[in-house]
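Example record

One chain of 171 residues, shown exactly as stored in the release files.
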Amino acid sequence: MSGYPLFTVKATGGSAEAPADPLISETLAAFDEASVHEAWTRALQRRATHPEGAITSARTLLETVCKHIIEDAGGTYSDREELPKLYRTAAEHLQLALDQHTEEVFKTILGNCQSVVNSLASIRNKLSDAHGRGRKAVRPSARHAELAVNLAGTVATFPVSTWRARQAVKP
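Predicted structure tokens for this chain:
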């Protein structure tokens, strides 16, 4: 009536949904819905209500992505290999390892991705529900789980997208 536009706020997702969630979900589901996307979905579901479980699921997501890429590339891994080594092996198959690049900015970004993977493996060992705890153990909050899950989803998406792009150009 006044001639001025009227704006309203419209909710687009659950209160715990992050802007990247749908894009990551789509990318991971297209790669492997049965196990990779399932690990991502489990991490999302636990993010706000079960932080320890969400951190475990975030690490599981990255480990599953790495193992799938290594297997699909014809490589092998040991069941004893930890996440940082699995990520390095997958990165080598994708030509994303630090020593496979000369451009400093790419080396920095790829090194930071490896650092995130190393940190997620470490936080899972210290703050997740994967190990028993003493009485005075530190407990992660929902915001810690949100950070771990969002980082894992983002880091997992890059090798998956790289793998899919490389498969698309194969003769």
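Notes: Helices lie at 21-46, 51-72, 83-93, 104-127, 142-168.
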